[in-house]
Write a structure and sequence with these properties.
Blueprint lengths: L1 E5 L3 H12 L3 E6 L2 H10 L1 E2 L3 E5 L5 E4 L6 H4 L4 E4 L6 H14 L7 E3 L17 H8 L5 E5 L4 H5 L4 E6 L3 H11 L4 E6 L2 H23 L4 H22 L9 H12 L4 H10 L4 H6 L6 H16 L4 H10 L5 H9 L7
Parallel strand pairs: 1-2, 1-6, 2-5, 6-7, 7-8, 9-10
Antiparallel strand pairs: 3-4, 8-9
Helix pairs in contact: 4-5, 8-9, 8-10, 8-11, 8-13, 8-14, 9-10, 13-14, 14-15
The structure holds nicotinamide-adenine-dinucleotide and SN-glycerol-3-phosphate.
The site of nicotinamide-adenine-dinucleotide has 23 residues, from helix 1.
Length: 341
């Protein structure tokens, strides 16, 4: 099976490594040709995943999208491993490029977890499947998600992921590409639920990082995770997801991992906010994308439009906007009126 992974950040690289180690024919495509050349030569992604040696079979190339056209004609699966902000242009490009080389049927999946920032002419930001409906409605698409730190996957540590798509062929392609001794891949047809879980858990991980940074204790952390799961589920159901999806790997599973694991960049943002850093400085010091910072406002905005109550998300937005400080956010959450669970 031939797989093309677009985006050579931590996660695109980790999955490319995992698939190559499992014997698949993998091309990893970096945005920057010079970065690709350096990776191919040194056999390491020094900027984004320095702990892991690239297997000899993994091919690395990069540059302008047009350079990828030839490789596309022989690929069986395209994986977009960029941050959410780059999903739209890549889907739009693939919607032209795949049919142009006679590969219109090839499944295209993405790894990003978030809501896109609102386009200039749009009222609110979109999830990946909504972006695909706009710019690539004829492509066969899906999302690959679940609790997974890039470093652990690249090191071959046991991980379970979810292949989500409305199309059985896309789910089957993801299972064929990645399922193996260290990586279990479960299939799910609830793409909305899987995408909402992946986007909202990042916002909630910022809140939990903040809570732990302020040393508010284990009770508070458990409360945040549980009430966070409730607000994630409310939004997802209002957007058309199935409630049970949020009890699975891409809901509860990814929320627990990201909220409690120190490898999480979103949790690290919360920890830095607790130290008194502003949102911009907190992200800057990470050197990686923290999607929760970009998605939080959209999550709150879409929830408000649907009449869904998301107090933890609202507190994170106020914090990121500088309208509340860390202590003020906690006071606001604890000062809410009593209500039924
Ligand atoms: N790192 C993880 O453990 C992990 C796990 C699961 C999901 N994700 C999700 O995967 C997505 C990518 O995260 P990451 O950790 O790889 O980010 P990262 O910060 O490590 O790297 C981002 C990469 O995207 C590349 N990029 C940015 N714009 C691009 C474009 N237009 N075209 C091609 N490449 C572009 C950058 O050059 C960089 O290589 C995020 O949405 C994240 O939430 C990450
Ligand atoms: O490092 P984070 O916070 O982007 O989280 C990484 C993965 O999404 C965890 O599943």
């Amino acid at each position: 099976m031939r797989i093309t992974v677009i985006g050579a950040g931590a996660w695109g690289t980790a999955l490319a490594v995992a698939a190559a180690q499992a014997g698949r024919d993998v091309l990893l495509w970096a945005r920057d040709a010079a970065q690709a050349e350096a990776m191919a030569r040194a056999r390491v992604n020094a900027r984004y995943l320095p702990e892991v040696t690239l297997p000899p079979a993994l091919r690395v190339a990069g540059g302008e999208p047009a350079g990828l056209q030839v490789a596309l004609s022989g690929t069986d699966l395209v994986v977009i491993g960029t941050p959410m902000a780059a999903l739209r242009p890549w889907l739009a490009w693939l919607a032209q490029a795949l049919p142009a080389c006679g590969r219109a049927e090839v499944p295209v999946v993405w790894l990003c977890k978030g809501f896109e920032r609102a386009q200039p002419d749009a009222e609110y930001g979109l999830l990946g499947h909504e972006v695909a409906q706009q710019v690539a409605p004829a492509l066969r698409v899906g999302v690959f998600s679940g609790p997974s730190f890039a470093r652990e996957v690249a090191q071959g540590l046991p991980t379970a992921l979810v292949a989500a798509s409305a199309e059985p062929a896309v789910r089957a392609a993801l299972v064929a590409a990645f399922h193996g001794p260290a990586l279990r891949v479960y299939a799910n047809d609830d793409m909305i639920g899987v995408e909402v879980g992946g986007a909202v858990k990042n916002v909630l991980a910022i809140a939990t990082g903040l809570c732990d940074g302020l040393r508010l204790g284990h009770n508070a952390r458990a409360a945040l995770i549980t009430r966070g799961l409730a607000e994630m589920t409310r939004l997802g159901v209002a957007l058309g997801a199935r409630a049970e999806t949020f009890m699975g790997l891409t809901g509860l599973g990814d929320l627990v991992l990201t909220a409690t694991g120190d490898l999480s960049r979103n949790r690290q943002v919360g920890l830095r906010l607790a130290e008194g850093l502003g949102a911009e400085a907190a992200v800057h010091t990470l050197g990686h994308v923290a999607e929760g910072v970009y998605s939080a406002r959209t999550v709150a905005q879409r929830a408000r439009r649907l009449g869904v109550d998301m107090p933890i998300t609202e507190a994170v937005v106020s914090l990121l906007d500088g309208a509340l400080d860390a202590r003020g956010a906690v006071e606001r959450l604890m000062g809410r009126d009593p209500k039924a669970e």
